[in-house]
């Protein structure tokens, strides 16, 4: 699984050079593997899948841990997880497709399409709730319907009839367009609009008009019982006081599916990201008109304090370097996910985990941080020395846990584990002579020691010996 992903590195390096990104990511991807594997162990995460795409190329992907602990099933890059609220971006695509076809308009009133929509508008001066305001989380609707579907152990998501029955009891929390107020209810209603306008169930419409055209063959609305526990990863809870994650009960999102119901693989999520990079600058339609996707990626609403901005389906923001980003995360019972795309340089990052209380954003940022540290491409000029001899885990017990020494260009890097932010735990060394390396920017040295057979078995670091370990 990991070996397959590494076959893409050579291609990625050639692409990067062609696009003037003169970095060698081979060592970075190796260190990402080590870091994610260790965080999985230290945080007792059952399984992680992750990917990096550059425009149309899957440049790296990995899978770590188990999809089913009880059956000792390895998680794979093709394993499905629920992506929870990232589903909203797919629902937004489906709505924009209906807009492209002239079947609805963004400023159509919801009450004109859904006669049962009887939510009390406390702030009528703000105007009517429209498709546009639902897409951009600016409708003023409450976050949820009042059903207790986030409650363990059974997660009783409402049916469409149960959802519609309470609409008349709900009221808006702010005027339309006055604030960014994230709403699962709003996206559940968008799913109903898709059904009403298309004449097809939401699941069927999404599959026929979005998933199949994008060749996302491992993507489904809901969690299929026939796949659960093998092709689809089992979900697990947060870590309990005893350090154990329990198996979360299987659930179906029912009427909330358009807001949180899609399951997919990390490989399919990569296809979804590449499609967006491809379509943004295209001249022909592919599922959507290019202009419609660009509109999804533009700021459509803003929180009162200006801290967050939203497009249609995606959070939209720019970094300090002027790069434009869109992203969405997902959290639901037993699963956490995150998709982050740099629209400026066409880099996409995705991650899925089959347990709760895992910081997916932190893990994605760690992947990005290690890649950013990748050195300029250069041939290893350390004479008569094989840097791979030093590679491995070194024991820091009892004072700390361990660190991993790996090749980094023409030198070495030590990554101290565990590390929530791996960049802050990376130390770079240059070869000084024989088995001695000097910490870059310092006079500190580390000296590797060999056994009688010439094998490296420990390192002298900071005046103390740290033995090499095997896993």
CATH class of the largest domain, please?
Alpha Beta
Shape: elongated
> Measured on Cα atoms, how large is the radius of gyration?
25 Å
CATH superfamily of the largest domain: DD-peptidase/beta-lactamase superfamily
| Strand order in the largest sheet | 15-16-17-18-19-20-21-22
- CA(first)-CA(last) distance: 18 Å
What proportion of the residues is helical, as a percent range? 25-40%
Count of individual domains: 3
CATH fold label of the largest domain: Beta-lactamase
Report the sheet with the most strands, covering strand number, pairing sense and barrel closure. 8 strands, antiparallel, barrel
Low-confidence runs (pLDDT<50, min 5 residues)? none
- Mean pLDDT reading: 94
Keywords: Hydrolase
Organism: Leptobacterium flavescens
Domain Beta-lactamase-related: 43-357
GO molecular function, one term: hydrolase activity
Q: SSE layout and pairings?
A:
Layout: H1 2-6, H2 9-18, H3 26-42, E1 47-54, E2 57-68, E3 73-74, E4 80-84, H4 87-100, H5 110-113, H6 131-135, H7 160-166, H8 184-198, H9 202-211, E5 220-221, E6 236-239, E7 245-247, H10 257-260, E8 262-265, H11 266-280, H12 290-296, E9 301-302, E10 309-310, E11 315-318, E12 324-332, E13 335-342, E14 347-353, H13 360-372, E15 392-395, E16 402-408, E17 411-417, E18 426-433, E19 436-439, E20 445-450, E21 456-461, E22 464-469
Antiparallel strand pairs: 1-2, 1-14, 2-3, 4-8, 5-8, 6-7, 9-10, 11-12, 12-13, 13-14, 15-16, 15-22, 16-17, 17-18, 18-19, 19-20, 20-21, 21-22
Helix pairs in contact: 3-13, 4-8, 4-9
């Amino acid at each position: 699984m990991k070996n397959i992903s590494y076959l893409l590195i050579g291609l990625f390096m050639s692409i990067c050079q062609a696009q003037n990104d003169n970095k060698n990511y081979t060592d970075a991807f190796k260190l990402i593997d080590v870091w994610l594997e260790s965080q999985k162990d230290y945080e007792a995460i059952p399984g992680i899948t992750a990917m990096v795409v550059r425009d149309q190329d899957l440049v790296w992907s990995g899978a770590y841990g188990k999809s089913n602990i009880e059956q000792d099933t390895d998680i794979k890059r093709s394993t499905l997880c629920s992506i929870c609220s990232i589903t909203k971006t797919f629902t937004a695509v489906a709505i924009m497709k209906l807009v492209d076809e002239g079947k609805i308009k963004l400023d159509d009133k919801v009450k004109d399409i859904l006669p049962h929509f009887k939510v009390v508008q406390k702030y009528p001066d703000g105007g009517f709730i429209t498709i546009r305001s639902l897409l951009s989380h600016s409708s003023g609707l409450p976050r949820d319907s009042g059903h207790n579907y986030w409650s363990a152990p059974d997660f009783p998501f409402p049916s469409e009839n149960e959802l519609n029955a309470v609409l008349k009891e709900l009221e808006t929390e702010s005027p339309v367009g006055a604030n960014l107020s994230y709403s699962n209810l709003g996206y559940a209603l968008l799913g109903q609009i898709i059904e009403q306008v298309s004449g097809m169930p939401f699941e069927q419409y999404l599959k026929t008009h979005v998933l199949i055209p994008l060749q996302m063959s491992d993507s489904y609305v809901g969690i299929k019982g026939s796949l659960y526990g093998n092709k689809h990863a089992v979900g697990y809870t947060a870590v309990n006081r005893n350090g154990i994650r329990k198996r979360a009960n299987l659930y179906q999102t029912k009427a909330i599916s358009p807001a949180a119901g899609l399951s997919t693989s990390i490989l399919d999520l990569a296809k979804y990201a590449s499609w967006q990079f491809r379509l943004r600058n295209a001249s022909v339609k592919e599922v959507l008109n290019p202009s419609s996707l660009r509109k999804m990626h533009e700021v459509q609403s803003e929180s009162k304090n200006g801290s967050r901005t939203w497009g249609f389906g995606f959070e939209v923001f720019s970094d300090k370097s002027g790069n434009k980003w869109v992203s969405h995360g997902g959290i639901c019972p037993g699963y956490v996910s995150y998709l982050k795309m740099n629209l400026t340089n066409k880099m996409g990052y995705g991650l899925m985990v089959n347990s709760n209380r895992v910081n997916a954003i932190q893990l994605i940022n760690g992947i990005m941080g290690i890649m950013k540290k990748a050195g300029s491409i250069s041939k290893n000029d350390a004479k008569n020395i094989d840097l791979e001899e030093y590679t491995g885990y070194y024991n820091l017990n009892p004072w700390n846990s361990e660190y991993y020494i790996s090749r980094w260009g023409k030198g070495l890097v030590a990554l101290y584990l565990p590390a929530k932010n791996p960049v802050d735990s990376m130390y770079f060394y240059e070869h000084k002579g024989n088995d001695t390396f000097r910490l870059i920017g310092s006079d500190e040295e580390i000296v590797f020691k060999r056994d009688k057979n010439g094998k490296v078995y420990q390192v002298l670091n900071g005046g103390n010996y740290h033995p090499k370990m095997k896993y």
